[in-house]
Write a structure and sequence with these properties.
31 strands, alpha+beta, Substrate Binding Domain Of DNAk, Chain A, domain 1, 7-stranded mixed sheet, Nucleotidyltransferase, domain 5
Length: 601
């Protein structure tokens, strides 16, 4: 037999609101650290930024971002090269690409580990601490090692630059770290990133996980009309005004709806949703196009034998795709590596030019020397799947009852700079104002720094899941299944493994507050064990229902002689973290435990 509910108290009361008398508020205080450092670990590109407290107090937008030497870029490709020992980082970003290309040329790459765009493995994957990642050469390495070494590189690079700005080093205790994650990620992915950061040397209590759309909102709330690059700025929106955030990154598209609060903060009205429709979808379409011109086996062989040329080809396309314009009929000209011509000849026994002429694109694509000339209609088709999926999802979100008050769309993320995506959104939603900051690709990164200084600016979020505790509840004929019916020691009928809800999916959660309180009685001669379950369903009955997962538990010492065997359970949602607080009523002793999403979900 498990916990039993104290029937006079409900863990969730939607009609009457929360138990205000029992709430404990633990709102996050503004950061008082000397420096806030943020790492934006993206699918395609990554970078870091920081600001000192005194700079933030005078101008919140004064944020220093990484500049990659020799590349005139504030972001570097998310690529990491690890030595054959599987433990030591050799290089990251541009340096990793260059070194791996060199290793391939010298045929010394087989024992090394090169990973690119590996962040997407965290999207809708069954994650645990033993999850593996496959390198470009097929070798596998522990995923957490790859992420931890990448974060460690960005952390140490940031520290080296920030310490050059002032006389003397900044102490570790004076730095608060922020790590960004997509809002649509599940809890196991967020926890995975936190643990990877800890392995990289960032102490848990010095780290905050920031949701990317929220960070972007904070950044754009501080921009003036001039800086926002549009006639309407987010800063001009008054309290009560609602806007949709479209965070278009390389891997995922995040969509959520925010409302400006009276205090100037932001609250979430509609839980984050989206999918893997970011800029890399366009890259995938381009690669499929190349395969259609020749054959899939040609692309696979080219990638395997000439990784350096393959990376260079995708790099050229990355530049070209930014210029694809829905209103201009200009051909896209791509220089094709000579190694690709050789691969086509060896695999198909004909030259590339003949292959193009015999393909389904013979009337829209031509080859002149090493230049592939692509008609604009074909180039625009590379964006179709990504844009169609995004637009349909936007339509669906804006048709929801809770989003009827949306007046504007804020577009952020690197892919938001695409002319194709901008035009599609503007044409589909002409009645909504568009807010596209000049630094759309850096909005998340710089906003993460602001969030580190003032986390309390995000005042309310929407729960993506239903959380509850496993109990034995009094049996109700019309509510509980007969299969769960048991008889307790007092002869009462109870429902075994009942899902006693604390928070329901879609419920509004005030940051730092215990949303609900459950009071449970521990049967005699039993240990007090609190087990927490989670599900996407709003109406779970039993913790054994499909989709329900055990995500954490806590044992509370209790002797058999104790008469008062009641335990008060509060779930406190502080930003992206969840604290479960258990109080033994007889002594007032409080126990805390974190929900572990990696071992159970």
């Amino acid at each position: 037999m498990q916990l039993t509910t104290v029937e006079k108290v409900k863990a969730y009361e939607p009609e009457n609101g929360n138990h205000q008398d029992d709430q404990r508020t633990c709102q996050p205080l503004p950061s008082k650290h000397l420096l806030v450092a943020a790492i934006d670990f993206g699918t395609t590109y990554s970078s870091w930024a920081f600001s000192f407290r005194y700079d933030y107090d005078s101008d919140p937008t004064k944020v220093s971002a990484k500049q990659w030497q020799g590349h005139e870029s504030s972001k570097g490709p998310t690529c990491v090269l690890i030595k054959p020992d599987g433990k030591t980082l050799h290089s990251f970003a541009f340096d990793a690409e260059a070194k791996y290309a060199e290793l391939i040329e010298e045929n010394e790459h087989k024992d090394w580990y090169f990973f690119k765009r590996f962040k997407m493995m965290l999207w809708k994957q069954k994650l645990n601490r033993n999850s593996m990642l496959e390198a470009e050469n097929g070798q596998k390495l522990l995923a957490r090692t790859v992420f931890a070494l990448s974060i460690k590189y960005l952390k140490e690079d940031l520290l080296a630059v920030s310490n050059d700005r002032i006389a003397g080093a900044v102490l570790p205790t004076e730095i608060h770290w922020v790590l960004t994650v997509p809002a649509i990620w599940n809890n196991s992915a967020k926890q995975f990133m936190r643990e990877a950061a800890e392995e990289a040397g960032i102490e848990s209590h010095m780290l905050t996980i920031a949701l990317e759309p929220e960070a972007a909102s904070l950044f754009c709330r501080h921009l003036s009309v001039e800086k926002s690059g549009d006639q309407l700025s987010l800063a001009s929106l008054q309290a009560g005004k609602q806007y949709l955030v479209l965070d278009a990154g390389g891997g995922t598209i995040d969509i959520t709806v925010h409302e400006v609060t009276a205090s100037g903060g932001v609250k979430e009205l509609y839980k984050a949703s989206g999918g893997a429709w970011g800029g890399t979808k366009v890259d995938d379409s381009f690669e499929e196009f190349i395969a259609c011109l020749t054959d899939k086996s040609v692309v696979q062989k080219f990638k395997k034998d000439h990784m350096d040329d393959y990376i260079e080809l995708l790099g050229r396309f990355e530049v070209k795709k930014r210029d694809v314009d829905p209103d201009k009929d200009t051909k896209v000209v791509m220089i094709i590596p000579l190694a690709f011509f050789t691969t086509v000849k060896n695999r198909l026994h004909k030259d590339f030019k003949k292959a193009v002429k015999k393909s389904s694109y013979s009337n829209s694509v031509s080859l002149s020397g090493d230049k592939l000339n692509i008609d604009p209609t074909v180039a625009r088709s590379f964006f179709k799947e990504s844009i169609d999926s995004t637009i349909e999802h936007l339509k669906d979100a804006l048709q929801k009852r809770e989003n009827k008050g949306v007046k504007a769309i804020l577009m952020v993320g690197g892919f938001s700079e695409s002319k194709m995506l901008k035009k599609a959104v503007q044409q589909t939603f002409p009645g909504l104002k568009m807010i596209i900051p000049d630094e759309a690709g850096l909005a998340v990164l710089k906003g993460a720094v602001m969030f580190g200084h003032e986390p309390s600016k995000i005042v309310e979020r929407i729960s993506k899941y239903t959380y509850g505790v496993c109990v034995d509840s009094l049996f109700q004929e019309k509510v509980h299944p007969e299969s769960a019916k048991i008889t307790d020691t007092d002869g009462k009928y109870r429902c075994q493994n009942f899902f006693h809800k604390h928070v329901i999916a879609g419920q509004s959660l005030k940051d730092g507050e215990a949303q609900t309180v459950g009071i449970y009685s521990i049967p005699q001669n039993q240990e007090a064990v609190i087990t927490v379950f989670v599900t996407e369903s709003k109406t779970p009955v039993l913790v054994t229902d499909p989709g329900c997962s055990l995500v954490g538990q806590c044992s509370i010492p209790m002797s058999s002689a104790e008469a008062d065997r009641e335990v008060v359970v509060r779930m406190i949602f502080g930003g992206t973290e969840i604290d479960v607080e258990c109080t033994k009523k007889s002594t007032g002793k409080v126990s805390h435990f974190n929900i572990d999403f990696l071992s159970c979900m």
